[in-house]
Amino acid sequence: MTTIRSFTCDDLFRFNNVNLDPLTETYGLPFYMQYLAHWPEYFQIAESPSGEIMGYIMGKAEGSGELWHGHVTALTVAPEFRRLGLAAKLMSILEEISEKKRCYFVDLFVRVSNKVAVHMYNKLGYSVYRTVLEYYSGDVDEDAYDMRKALSRDVEKKSIVPLAHPVHPEELD
Ligand SMILES: CC(C)(COP(=O)(O)OP(=O)(O)OC[C@H]1O[C@@H](n2cnc3c(N)ncnc32)[C@H](O)[C@@H]1OP(=O)(O)O)[C@@H](O)C(=O)NCCC(=O)NCCS
Q1: Cβ–ligand 1 contact at 116 (below 6 Å)
Q2: Per-residue pLDDT, 167
Q3: What ligand 1 atom has the least distance to the C-alpha of 90?
Q4: How far is the C-alpha of 103 from the C-alpha of 96, rounded, in Å?
Q5: Which residue numbers delimit the N-acetyltransferase domain (predicted)?
Q6: Which residue among 45, 71, 72, 82 is best mutated to probe the pocket of ligand 1, counting the most ligand atoms within 8 A of its Cβ?
Q7: pLDDT of 60-83, one tens digit each?
């Protein structure tokens, strides 16, 4: 049976099987520690019965006024555990926490070329709010979709009305 539990510092030394994936970013240790210290409830991990890390989600709540929202910083599932509904489960946990915090919406950034993830987020009720030009740097810079899902507090769903034009990273609020 899969166990979903809070991420701990020790997991940072055991998550290579998940992070050795070209679409999964590996950050410096302080970055993870910051999330563990500030938003531990948003950092959840799925573990197999044999103790293998299957995937995890990392997020936070930020913004003020009607921009108060939950944010998905990382979501990843090891290749051998994909298509089991794990990502959908981890997203629903993050959304539940964001509801409890009275957030207006949940948002995330995803590479425009990451068709699997974009399709999944669409299926989970997310839509493209705006395109962020050259958000991801690399040999060739790549655009991101900023995708959003309105939560129950945003009764009129104002937060997800798409912007008419793409934005540059320095214009992000
Ligand atoms: C994207 C990712 C997190 C999906 O994880 P997952 O646990 O396999 O996803 P789920 O099993 O919860 O899938 C939920 C739905 O998403 C869609 N989906 C997921 N993977 C898919 C695939 N390979 N092809 C088509 N649809 C897919 C399906 O609609 C699926 O529902 P279904 O299985 O009932 O049809 C995983 O592929 C991954 O870790 N990719 C690399 C990292 C990444 O891209 N992260 C997102 C960056 S923002």
Answers
A1: yes
A2: 97
A3: 12
A4: 10
A5: 2-152
A6: 82
A7: 999 999 999 999 999 999 999 999
Helix (H) or strand (E) holding 16, with range, is: helix 16-19
Per-residue pLDDT tens over the stretch 108-155: 999 999 999 999 999 999 999 999 999 999 999 999 999 999 999 999
Distance CA 142, CA 112 (A): 7
| CB-based contacts of 102, cutoff 8 Å, min separation 6 | 68, 153
- DSSP character string of 96-140: HHHHHTT-SEEEEEEETT-HHHHHHHHHTT-EEEEEEEEEE-SSS
Boundaries of domain holding 79? 3-171
163 C-alpha to center of ligand 1: Å?
26
CA 123 – CA 104 distance, rounded (Å)? 20
| CATH number of the domain that residue 151 is part of | 3.40.630.30
Structure tokens belonging to residue 40? 């531990």
Helix (H) or strand (E) holding 145: strand 142-150
Query: What are residue 17's phi and psi, to 5 degrees?
Result: -60, -25
